[in-house]
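User: Please predict the structure of the protein below. I'd like the answer in C-alpha cell form so I can feed it into my own downstream comparison script.

Assistant: Understood. Taking the following sequence of 325 residues as input:
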Amino acid sequence: MHSLILAALRTLALGLIVLALPLQAASEPQVRVGMLQFGTAHWELEQIRRQGLDREQGYRLVLQPLANNAAGLLALTSGSVDLIVSDWIWAAQRTLDGAALRFIPFSSSIGELVVPADSTIHSVADLRGKRLGVAGGPQGKSWRLLDAYARQQGIELQQVAAVSFAAPPLLSRELEAGRLDAILTFWHFAARLHARGFRAAFGAAELAQGLGLPKAMPMLGYVARDAWIEANAEAVRAFARSVVQAKRQLREDAPWQALRPLLRAADDAEFDALRQGYRQGEPDAQIDAQAQLAAQRVWQQLGIDSAGRALPLSIFRALDGAATE
C-alpha cells in the first residue's frame, strides 16, 4: 500500500511539472530581433542564445534573419520584429519623420579608411589627389563623418579627391587590384583586409572623436519602436543586460570557437582580426547626458536634417534609469 501511495504521488508531481512548463514558457516575454545572417550582431546574439542568457534574464530571444537592411526596416515597421540593428543617425531621422524610435547600444565601430601597407596616406589631408572608394552611398554615416571632419579642416573631399561609392566587396577587390588608393569601408570588411596585409589610416570612430563625440560613444545599436519600448520596459532592460553579459563573455577567447562558423573567416588570421575588431567596438552600455549633448552638436555639424531640426534626444532614452550590469 505504501509503495502504491508513493507511486501515485510521483505521478502527480510529474504531472504538475509537465503542466507548469507551458505556463512558464507562456509567461516569458519574447524579444524578436531581426538581424542580417552572418552580420556582426549575430555573433553576440548567438552567444546570448547559446549560453541561455536570455532565459537567465527572464525572456526568450527569437532571432529572425533578414535579407538586407531594407527588409529590416519593413520588418520593424510592420511589427514582425521588435528590434533591428542600425545607427542613431538613422533612428533620429526616422523619429523626426514621425516614426519614433529608441536606441540600445551595440557597437562603437562603424568603419575605417583602409590603405595598402606602404601607402603614404595617414590623414584626411593626404587624400588630396587620391582615388577614394566609399562603402554605401553619400548618405552613409561613415562618409558623413569623413566629409564633415574634412570640411572642419578646410577640405572639400569631392573636389580634391576622386570619390566613388560602391558595395564593400567590390571596393575590397578594387583596392587589392590597385585601382583605388584608399577605401572607407565597414569595419568587418576592413578587418578582413588587415589579415591580408592592408592597414588602417584612421577609423570613423577617430573622425567622430575629432568632431567631439566620446571615444566609446555607441554608433550602432538595437533600434525599436518607441511604443514597443514603453509597453515592454522590463523585457527591454532584460535584453540590454544580456547584451552586456554576452560582450563580457566575448572578451575571452573560449566562446569564439563555437561562433567561428558565423564569422566566415577564410583563415586564422582573418578570424583573429574579426574577433579583435568586435572587441575594440565595445561601447559604453548607456549614453549619459554629456554624450547626448555631444551627439547633438555633431548632428548639427553633419547637417543631416534639411529643416535644421535638433537631434531628438528621446532616441537615447530606451534604458533611462535601468541598470545594465
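That's the full C-alpha cell string. The first helix runs from residue 2 to 27.
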